[in-house]
Structure formats: structure tokens, C-alpha cells
Amino acid sequence: MAKRIAYLGPPGTFTEEAALLYDETAQLIPFPSIPAVAVAVDSGMAEEGVVPIENSIEGSVTDTLDLLIHESRVLIRKELVLPIEHHLLVKPGTQVSEVRVIFSHPQALGQCRHFIERCFPKVEIVAALSTAAAVEEMMTSDYPAAAIGTRRAAELYGAETSAKAIQDQASNVTRFVVLAPTDHPATGFDKTSLCFSFAEDRPGVLCAVLQEFAQRTINLAKVESRPTKESLGKYIFLVDLEGHHDDPLVSEALARVREKTALFKVFGSYPKYK
Amino acid sequence: MAKRIAYLGPPGTFTEEAALLYDETAQLIPFPSIPAVAVAVDSGMAEEGVVPIENSIEGSVTDTLDLLIHESRVLIRKELVLPIEHHLLVKPGTQVSEVRVIFSHPQALGQCRHFIERCFPKVEIVAALSTAAAVEEMMTSDYPAAAIGTRRAAELYGAETSAKAIQDQASNVTRFVVLAPTDHPATGFDKTSLCFSFAEDRPGVLCAVLQEFAQRTINLAKVESRPTKESLGKYIFLVDLEGHHDDPLVSEALARVREKTALFKVFGSYPKYK
């Protein structure tokens, strides 16, 4: 039986593209939200789940971080990095000069703002709940319309690509993670993601933790603070470090950090994406 | 002449509420994007500008951070904190049981997901470009509809509030900043926001910088890393610290940090919100 992979749907989104890139032989099952993907993995409806975690322009996907911090027993087993390309899609045969309406998700519209202002200064902009929903609405629209969506959505809905890679920022990439009940064995080229917070907010506490890594020459790939859900003033720190939690030095550093922090949770170790 | 304050519009959004809270006697001028607000201040179209910078649930507003990092000569002069309350609005006289469509911005819809699932399991959800646009669309809709929007939008469009504070997370607050050509003189109860990055990514560089603050007992209110626009692997660090850049110890620490970093930029010092 094919492996079942839950992903943040609907079909035709970038997350589906990432899941296909990861395992094109798997049975892909769309779920309506990021927490739903985690529940699917946790409950055995799927062996693994794919969700976005970070975009080079928008920053972190907070739903995924909050899930890893607060809710779920799933771990990160893999990371995937996908270039994000927005395309201008139309019904086959539609002339670009006729287009009166452009459908898309507000985030995609924001990422293509310059293109729209230059090429379609007078067009009506209509929001959709996802880029896939936008393509569907465009295909059933009564007047000449376009949608901003993925290559995969064009395939699924039979749309024609009238302009490629129309996003303002050329280097737009998203990092996805594969969630599973267990993380990945060490490969010698790994990353580990974790979070921690402090009982008390005094000068130097974060520095003392980062020193545990620095003095063992463990490089940090990322440090981020998220407000706790209760208030803006209290923070949870998220760290990605280079190495596997089974590496002796990493394991030692993690044990010391655990002693110095109030909340402490390792999200998993996994191979670093090329 | 009244002070002119640019803000992220349209009228009826939370940013307008924040601007009114800050100065209800000012002339408020809506702009269509966060960069446009900064341009308005930089070019003298307005004396000050109000934009959101951080939400307790969604995290940082990346457009505002990117603007402060990369683009603008404006500084942070003040911070404001506003509780975010979403309301269910209808045309006066509409019965909730008749509602067939709910309009809102996808982010507001996400923040009220539990409420909608419980109270309106069968309703059609329609995306809008802003919560204010959603209220406008609801008011002109042909069939019985509702919109998720602000108290201020209800006022502006003459809508009736049929349910109050329907967001899933009770403690949802947003931090706004007032942008101006100069920052704020020291008050003795201040914060300073800055960013820096490193030419080389080696273990311990971030720690060495944080130590400059820790050894002077300067408390950090926030540490965050943002991917640089070029790639996911390189980061810019954003720090909020307690104190004013004119305080001798802060000034000394900032000078040392400047020497240790490649990019270094102070966004301003301003009074800490209550």
C-alpha cells in the first residue's frame, strides 16, 4: 500500500507541489488547516504530513510554529525547500488584453503587486480563500478573468499560463517540513529544531543559553522569538542548529540548555536540505 | 492646522482605530500599503504614520520590518498596543438565522474559525481584501449576509453588531508603531529597536553581540531573526531592548555592537507602552 501523506490543501497549492516533490508515489490527502494535518499524522490517518514552515519573504508560518510548540506529538522528519513561482493563469483562449478581473489569495496578490500595477493598472482585484480557489473561480467566471496561481493548479483546472514567475521578488522560496511520529536518524549532515523559554526575563538569560552552543562550536542556523499566546511581552525562542540530537556535543549542549530553561522542547533532528 | 497622520487603510481597519487612539484630533489619511505610509511620512505628505508591527497570534508584520530594515529614512517615534476584537456585523434588521454568506479577510476568518464552525457550519465563506472591504460587500449583498469586521467599520458603514469579540483566542493584541522623521527624546522608560547582521555565519557571533547588552544589564524585550530577502539561510537579527540610545550604557553597547556587525541600523528609541 502506498504511503499516505497528509498536506495543507486544497490540491493545486504549493504545499501539494512540495509533497509531490518529496514522494510522488505516495497517496496525498488534502486537509483544510495546518493543525488538521498534524492531527491526521498523530491519529494514524496518514503516516506523514507536509506543511509550510518559513517563507523567504513572509517569514515564519506561525500556525506551524505554534503547533510544534504547543500542541502536537509529531516531530520534524525532513525539510524541503521549494522556489515559489506565481503564474498568471487564464481560461484557454482568453486574450490578456481582455482581462477585467484578477482573482487570488491576498498574500499572492501582495507578492505580485508590481506586476499587477504595471501590466493591469485598471483591472478589478478579487480576493479568494486560496490560490487554488482563485483558479477555480477564474475558470467559472462570466467575464474575461485571470488568476494568480501555481503551475500545479493550471494542470488541475485546465488553465492556460499566460505569464510565468510574475512575483516581484525573484528569490522567493518556502521551506516545508515533513511531520511524522518519529524524527530522522543521524546522517552526518543534519539540523535540529527546538524551542525554549525562561521562567524569568532578566538580562543575559538568552546569552547564557546561546553560549552552550557557541562554546561547543555548534552553529545556529536560525534564532527567532515568538510572543507566547498569552501576551506580547513574553517570548518563546526557536532555534535551528547544525547537528543531530544524537551527536555527543549536541546532546550535551541540549542537556545543559534544558536545565537553564522553563519550557524546553526538541521538534526533531533531520537531514539538512542540500 | 491639525497634524496629518498617514495610516494603513482603508478606513474601518484596526490601524485606523490605533491612529484614533493615538491622536483623535489629527487628520487621518489612509494609504493602500505599509510602504506607502512610509513614503507619505518621508516625503512630507504627513507628519507621522501608523502601521502594525506585531500581533500576539500572527507574529511580526513582515512588511513593516522589511521597510525599517531596507528602505526608509523614517524612525519609530512611539508604540501603541491595541486589543484586536472581531465582531460579526450584519445589515440592520438581518436575522442571524437567515445568514447564508460570511465575508472577511482570510486572516480574520482564520482567527474566528471556531466561532464560524460552531455557529455557522453551513454558511458560504467569501474572502475579501480587507475587513473593511468585507463590511462594504456585506452591506451591498443581495442575500442575507454577515461580515467579520471592526467596531469602527460598523460605525462607518452603518452595520449592526450581532456578535461581539468572536475571535477564538481571547488575548489577541497588536502592537502598532508611529513612524516619523525623528524618534522620541528619552523619558526614562524607553525602548530601542534595531537590527544587525553578520558578514560571516560562525558559531558564537550572535552570542558575542548579546553579551554586550547582558554585561551592561540591558534587558532585551525581543530577539527575532528574519531571513534576508536573498535566501533562507542568511539572517538579519532584530532586537528590542529596554532603554534609550542616549542612555550612556545603551549608547556604549550600541557602539560596540556596530563594530561587531556588518549591517547595523537603529530604528529609533521611544517610550515603552504602559
Give the class-level CATH name of the largest domain in chain A: Alpha Beta
How many domains of chain A? The number is 3
Task: Please give the largest β-sheet of chain A.
Answer: 6 strands, mixed
Secondary-structure class of chain A: alpha/beta
Percent of residues in helices of chain A comes to: 25-40%
Low-confidence stretches of chain A: none
| Percentage of residues in strands of chain A | 25-35%
Here the CATH topology of the largest domain in chain A equals D-Maltodextrin-Binding Protein, domain 2
* Gap between N and C termini of chain A: 29 Å
- Helical segment count of chain A: 9
Global mean pLDDT of chain A: 91
Going by CATH, the architecture of the largest domain in chain A would be: 3-Layer(aba) Sandwich
Query: H/E order of the elements of chain A?
Result: EHEHEEHEEEHHEHEHEEEHEEHE
Strand element count of chain A: 15
Molecular shape of chain A: elongated
Q: What is the strand and helix layout of this fold?
A:
Two copies of one chain form a homodimer.
Chain A: E1 4-8, H1 14-22, E2 27-31, H2 34-42, E3 48-55, E4 59-60, H3 62-71, E5 75-83, E6 87-90, E7 101-104, H4 106-111, H5 113-119, E8 124-127, H6 131-139, E9 145-149, H7 151-157, E10 160-163, E11 173-180, E12 190-196, H8 205-214, E13 220-227, E14 235-242, H9 248-260, E15 264-271
Parallel strand pairs in A: 1-2, 1-3, 7-8, 7-9
Antiparallel strand pairs in A: 3-4, 3-11, 5-11, 6-9, 6-10, 12-14, 12-15, 13-14
